[in-house]
């Protein structure tokens, strides 16, 4: 049970948060800044990037600060994220 709990926490923090949300944030910013709205890549990516910056900002301010949700819910806490 402890191993599954640790695996679930690693999945949420590394696979989901880091490799999904935080990895896509610079791509979302670069797409909005560099590609015109008529570009084919803009049309392909824009539905998938909609809301990315908002949810990442929310996650940084609510989930990750000291005393945030990560500290309260996860046994590794927010300090365990400083790997």
UniProtKB/TrEMBL annotation:
Signal peptide: none annotated. Keywords: Dioxygenase, Metal-binding, Oxidoreductase. GO terms for biological process: lipid oxidation. It comes from the Eukaryota. InterPro entries: LipOase, LipOase_C, LipOase_C_sf, LipOase_CS. The keyword Oxidoreductase applies. SUPFAM superfamilies: Lipoxigenase. The keyword Metal-binding applies. One of its GO terms (molecular function) is metal ion binding. Residues 1-83 form the Lipoxygenase domain. PANTHER family: LIPOXYGENASE. This is Lipoxygenase domain-containing protein. It comes from Desmophyllum pertusum.
């Amino acid at each position: 049970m402890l191993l599954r709990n640790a695996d679930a926490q690693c999945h949420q923090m590394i696979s989901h948060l880091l490799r999904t949300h935080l990895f896509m944030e610079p791509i979302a910013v670069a797409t909005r800044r560099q590609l015109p709205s008529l570009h084919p890549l803009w049309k392909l990516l824009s539905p998938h990037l909609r809301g990315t910056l908002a949810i990442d900002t929310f996650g940084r301010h609510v989930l990750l600060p000291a005393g945030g949700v990560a500290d309260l819910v996860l046994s590794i806490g927010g300090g365990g994220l400083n790997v």
